[in-house]
Design goal:
single chain; 250 residues; six-stranded mixed beta sheet; four-stranded antiparallel beta sheet; 10 strands
């Protein structure tokens, strides 16, 4: 794998808090246009790795390059318009209605007039299948599935090239989860997105991702297509894929 094929490149990454080592010599390349999932047990460092990639936390050692540029303390801000983040619980601002939640990143740019912002917000809501009549609702009035879709619209507001998803189907019933996965897959193709996500949902994993990276023992122990990774001999992988080997291989 060459650096030119990596939209995200992590090399020799160490995360350490005092004597506690979370990551040790971790390497990862996220390829342009793929959907890559991070899986691992509790405490394996999935969220911490995302924080490093987003420039929210600097590693003790190693490098993180995004769009071919090294992330260093303070320089991630200029890259953040090129990625969007969907947090696990949506993280909508409770005091803002649907429209204003999606408009927030556009207004922060201070480059667009309100008429342009309105058009873009309504376009993004339409992309995630939210009815215009719901634009004035408050987050407390929304179902869990609507919160996810509106948070996704906000993540897409600035036309990102990279989309980060933290447990995108957590808390959704199977029907809503399946619908949301199909929506992400459609948007990924329509918008030529690269997607990196954390998930524990095997159905989402099997339906959506191109490759899966398994975090265990302080580094990535397996990386590849789901059908290949599930045969890797490691206790976490055996437990994680237990009961699904035959289904996923079919």
């Amino acid at each position: 794998m060459t650096a030119e094929t990596c939209i995200i490149e992590v090399e020799g990454l160490w995360t350490q808090y005092g004597d506690h080592v979370v990551h040790r010599d971790l390497d990862l390349c996220v390829q342009y246009g793929e959907v890559l999932a991070l899986v691992g047990g509790s405490g394996s460092g999935k969220t911490t790795l995302l924080r490093h990639i987003l420039g929210l936390e600097m590693p003790a050692r190693g490098t993180v390059n995004v769009f071919g540029m090294p992330l260093q303390a303070g320089n991630a801000q200029g890259l953040r318009e090129r990625w969007g983040v969907l947090f696990q619980a949506g993280a909508l601002f409770s005091a803002l209605n649907v429209f204003d939640n999606v408009a927030l990143p556009l207004r922060e740019l201070r480059m667009l007039d309100e008429q342009s912002i309105r058009k873009l917000v309504m376009l993004k809501l339409d992309m995630v299948q939210i009815d215009p009549k719901d634009a004035l609702k408050m987050p407390a009035e929304l179902s869990g599935g609507m919160v996810k879709r509106i948070a996704l619209a906000r993540a897409l507001a600035l036309e990102p090239e990279l989309l980060f998803l933290d447990e995108p189907t957590a808390g959704l019933d199977p029907e809503l989860s399946d619908s949301f996965v199909k929506l992400i897959e459609k948007l990924r193709k329509d918008l030529a997105l690269t997607v990196i996500m954390v998930t524990h949902d095997l159905d989402t994993l099997i339906a959506l991702v191109d490759r899966v990276a398994v975090l265990a023992d302080q580094h990535i122990i397996a990386l590849g297509a789901v059908k290949d990774v599930m045969h890797f001999d490691h206790p976490f992988i055996r437990k994680f894929f237990a009961g699904r080997m035959q289904t996923a291989s079919a």
